[in-house]
Design brief:
5-stranded mixed β-barrel
């Protein structure tokens, strides 16, 4: 009865480990078989070729010594002469292996400790593989987790079935997470490394904002409204360009929501980051005028070859167009993909007068030759 109890216990342990670590029961049983194999080798000699099998239904352990079929055996612990092999299996050929059953064995303390290490190692490897396979398919998604610890500004997040890291530069400035806080972030990379899979999260990535809007605005989730581009100064200000495939739906209004409810939900998640929602346009000039909101634009001069654009604004709109520390024009430039030069109407007038004088002088020089 003791033997069957041990067998039953073996299967129960395998089931418990498989459940706890969310890995396949077969992997756990294979790890156990490898551990038994290693323990048996320490008893019969490390050069001995031993195979251990565990019956997945009964938990019964079968130990076998594999002997290679050779013409003349030099080591009877690992080889068997062809003549003897043919007596046991008439179809045996040189290079085949004959299985020699071994009696059940009691593991000593050292062998049992060694077997435990093998099982722990194999289960850890399987757990890492499972984590990597699960999260590599979730790149580009938002995940929820709990702050486990903060190390030198980097936040370690417990995702339930794995750990992830938000590096200091991927956190929104002035955000101070504490142990136990719930946190949402964007999965932007998953790497297989020696110490296990590394899951990298971000709260500053432009796509984090895109995904948050998709969660708040059904029209974006359904594909009616598309976010064409995003520019962020994390924790401070952002601009998003939106377009609707349905002319009856206003993309800006849908993203703002009733009394600003939808955009406020995103702003709240991003620690009060101000968001400008701008209608996207195929016409670069119109798009840039929209992108520079809330500043008013008087004139736009486009240089498509150099991918530059000169924007003329009234004198009283200059500081608004440039923004604090150049933030407004920088975000507009990122959003549109154009280099933007801003000047006042007076500056533009002076520049045009200067160009006119230079060209007049050139014409006179050419005419006087």
């Amino acid at each position: 009865m003791a033997v069957s109890a041990n067998r039953l216990e073996l299967l129960q342990i395998a089931d418990a480990v498989a459940r706890e670590k969310s890995i396949d029961r077969e992997i756990v049983l294979t790890a156990m078989a490898d551990a038994i194999q290693k323990a048996a080798k320490s008893r019969y000699g490390s050069e001995t070729n031993i195979r251990a099998d565990i019956n997945p239904k009964t938990g019964e352990i079968h130990l076998q010594r594999l002997l290679e079929v050779v013409e003349e055996a030099e080591d009877y612990g690992t080889q068997i002469p062809l003549a003897l092999a043919l007596d046991r299996n008439p179809e045996a050929k040189l290079g085949d292996f004959i299985a020699d059953p071994l009696p059940p064995m009691d593991f000593g303390r050292i062998a049992a400790q060694s077997a435990k290490q093998v099982i722990v190692q194999k289960v850890r490897e399987a757990e890492r593989d499972r984590q990597f396979d699960e999260y590599k398919d979730r790149i580009g998604e938002i995940v929820n987790g709990t702050v486990k610890r903060v190390e030198y500004g980097n936040v370690i997040v417990d995702l339930g079935r794995g750990e992830a890291i938000i590096r200091r530069d991927e956190m929104i400035p002035r955000e101070v997470p504490r142990y136990g806080d719930r946190i949402r972030a964007y999965v932007y990379d998953v790497r297989r490394e020696q110490r296990g899979p590394q899951i990298f999260l971000s709260r500053t990535h432009p796509q984090f904002m895109v995904k948050l809007f998709a969660m708040e605005v059904p029209e974006i989730y359904d594909g009616i409204i598309t976010i064409k581009s995003v520019a962020r100064d994390p924790g401070s200000r952002a601009k998003i360009a939106v377009i609707s495939s349905d002319s009856s739906i206003d993309p800006v209004g849908a993203c703002v929501g009733m009394r600003g409810s939808r955009v406020q939900a995103v702003v709240g998640e991003l620690q009060g980051e101000k968001i400008d929602i701008i209608p996207w346009s195929e016409d670069p000039a119109s798009f840039i005028v929209n992108a520079l909101q809330p500043a008013e634009v008087a004139k736009v001069v486009l240089d498509e070859d150099a991918e530059r654009i000169d924007v003329v604004v009234p004198d009283d709109q200059l500081s608004l167009a440039i923004g604090r520390r150049g933030q407004n024009v920088r975000l507009a430039s990122q959003l549109t993909g154009w280099d933007i030069d801003i000047m006042t109407e007076n500056e533009e007038s002076e520049r045009r007068q200067k160009e006119f004088n230079e060209r007049s002088q050139l014409f006179m020089d050419l005419a006087g030759r």
